[in-house]
Amino acid sequence: MGVMTSSEPLRRSDALTTGWSDVRIRRALLNGEFERLDRGLYLPSGVASRLDELGRHKVRIRSAARGLTDGAAFSHVSAAVMHGFALWRPDLGRLHITRDGSGGGGRSGGRHVHVGSLPPNEIVDITGIACTSAARTVVDLACTLTVEEAVIAGDSALAADPAVAESIVRLLATTGRRQGIVVARQIVGFLDGRSESAGESLSRLRMKQFSMPSPTLQKTVLDPDGAFVARVDFFWDEFGIVGEFDGMIKYDEGGSDAVRREKRREDTLRDLGYEVVRWTWAELFGFERVRARFERAVARSRR
């Protein structure tokens, strides 16, 4: 019974060698003592309930790592989870593994095995787990995810380590033909580690899609005496316009005090003569309203 009360995941193969039967495992699943994470992998329900989807995916990775062959590494979304990249709407149903070779890939049993060139210098160790490097992971995601998903992950990778940008350039210089690589080259050229959230990354994409001028990111605004006023998400110097993505998280955490501070900050910016354009997460999916708001701000700035 000790195995079943552990906080560690239970592998069917291990359980059977310690006296468990399939009937006993099924009973533990039915009575809610354990939760199935993967084929032949179970976690105590009390532990599973404290994990989010990313945490559960990591448990699955650590279990599967025991059977990882030499020259193979967790890749794509699985590597992104291990690197700690920001992921938007990730599909975590399958573990992604890349192995060096030319055949034998495919999807089965909760795994997606990718086959292709995987030089040793594109494999890194993350807490004992072989994963594709940050640069290789960004390129793999850019080849396979939507533009929005890939930009969010890529921006976060560059924010965590700006040197990844140079590594990506070197990697692309040696990458030959592969599915999705043309789009991937366009995506990685757009990445910017100064985006500090998924909402800011999506905002930049929407600006590009709606043919808005490119802003300066994370601009520090000073008053006429040189005193700090604010560090703003987006800034259009030619129009004197400040753009702010309002994720509402800071308000939720700080309550009314945060709202008052933000209002004073915005009032100060306006008092200095800046136009302020704000938008919410929901408006990222109806960005024509933000574009119209921006154009009105431009018109006011020209009066």
Task: Describe this protein's structure.
It contains twelve helices and 13 strands. With 303 residues, it is an alpha+beta fold. Helix 6 packs across helix 8 and helix 6 crosses helix 9. The longest helix is centred in the C-terminal third of the chain and has 23 residues. The N terminus is likely disordered.
Précis, in short:
The protein is 44% helix and 21% strand. By secondary structure, it is an alpha+beta fold.
Globally, the shape reads: elongated
According to DSSP, the number of beta strands is 13
Round the Cα radius of gyration to an integer and report it.
24 Å
- Quote the average pLDDT: 90
Determine the N-to-C terminus distance: 78 Å
Helix content: 40-55%
Which residue ranges are poorly predicted, with pLDDT under 50 across at least 5 consecutive positions? 1-5
Number of helices: 12
Structural class: alpha+beta
Write out the strand line-up for the largest beta sheet, numbering strands in chain order.
4-5-7-6
Helix and strand sequence: EHHEEHHEHEEEEEHHHHHEEEHEH
Strand content: 15-25%
Largest sheet: 4 strands, mixed
